[in-house]
Design a protein that fits this description.
The structure holds 2 protein chains of 2 kinds.
Chain A lengths: L1 H18 L19 H15 L14 H13 L1
Chain B lengths: L3 H20 L19 H14 L2 H12 L3 H27 L5 H12 L10 H28 L3 H31 L1 H13 L12 H10 L4 H16 L3 H38 L4
The chains are: A mainly alpha, B mainly alpha.
Chain lengths: 81, 290
Amino acid sequence: MSEKKDLLTMFKVVAARVDKRAFDNVTKESVITELGIDSLSMMQIVGEMETELGIMIPDEDLVELITVGDLVTKIGARVEG
Amino acid sequence: MKTRLEERLYKEYITFFEKAERERRWNVFEDIPWDRVNKDAPEEMALCAETFCSVEMYLPDYVAQGINVVRPYFGNAWFQANWGYEESKHSLALGEYLMRSGKRTPEQMFDLHTKIFSKKWEMPFTTARQMTFYGCVQEMATFVIYVKHREMAAKHGDEALRTIYDFVARDEIAHTRFYQGVIKVLLEEDPEGTLADMAHVFANFEMPGVGLVPDYDSRILKMREAGIDRAVFIQKVYIPILKFLNVSRHDMLKAQSKAISEKRDREILKAAQSEEQGKAALISSNVPSA
C-alpha cells in the first residue's frame, strides 16, 4: 500500500515536471485525460518513471491506461517483478 | 560535391516520386464522384471537413518555411515542393466538397480564407532533422484521422467525401513513409542525435492547427467524438512509428537524457569561462600602466 502511495507521489512529481503545472490533488481514481495530460506527455511521464525505477513496460500495455491508479498498478507490478 | 548523406536522401525522394507518379496521382475535378455527394449528411461531417480544409490552407507557410529549413538537402527540398502540390489538392477537394454539398457558400469559404490568413504558421522546431520527424508524426496522425473519417463518410452514404478521404489518406501515409525513410537514414548517420531529436519532437508535439484555426478547441472535441483519442494516438501513431524505425521508447529517452545532460554541462562550462574572463579583465584593468 505504502509503495503504491509512493508511486502516486512520484507520478505527481514527474507529471508536474513534464507538464509544467501542479498535480497536487491527483488521486488513484483520477482519469488521465481529465487531468489534461495528452498522449505524448503521458508517454514522457511513463518514460521518466521507468528510467528512475529501472523498469520497462511493454508499449502495448500503455494503450488502455484510463486512471492514474491503472498506471501506478502497472508500474508497481514491474517494480515487484 | 554531393555527400553520401545527400545521395541517400535524393534516392529516397526519387523512389517516392516515381511511385507517386505511377500509383497515386488523382484529379480533384475528374476523379471524385461529385454527383454522389450526400447533401443530407450531418453538419458534424462538414465541420470536420472544414477543419481539415482550414489546417491545409496554411500550405504557403508550411511550404515556404519547410523548404527553407531542408534546403541544404536536395532530395528533402524537392520532396517539400511535391508535398506542397499534393497537400494543396487536399484543401481544394475538401473546399469543393463543402460548397458542392451546400454546407458552405463560396462567400463563407472566402471569409474562412481571410480568417486563416490573418495568422501565420511558424515552424515548431528549428532544425531539418527535427522538422523531418515532426512531419513524420504529423502525417501519420493525419492519416489515422482521415481513415476514421473515410469510414464515417461511408457510413453516411457520402461517396464523394469517402473518395476524398481515401485519396488524401493514401497521400498522407506515402508522406509518412518518405519521412520515415529519411529518419532511418539519419538514424544510421547519427543514432544518438537523431534519437534525442525524436524524443524532443514527441515531447513538444502539437498538431499544426492549434492556436491558428478559428475555434480549434471545439473542433477538436468533435474530432474526439469521432473516435480519435489518446489510446488511438498511442496505438496507431506513436507505437507504429517507433516499430517501423526499429527504435524503442527507452532508447529514445536515454538519448534525450544524455543530450539534456550534455547541454547542461556545456552551459556550466560556458558560464565558468565567462566568469574567468570577467575576472581576468577586472584584474588587468586594475594593474597600473608602466
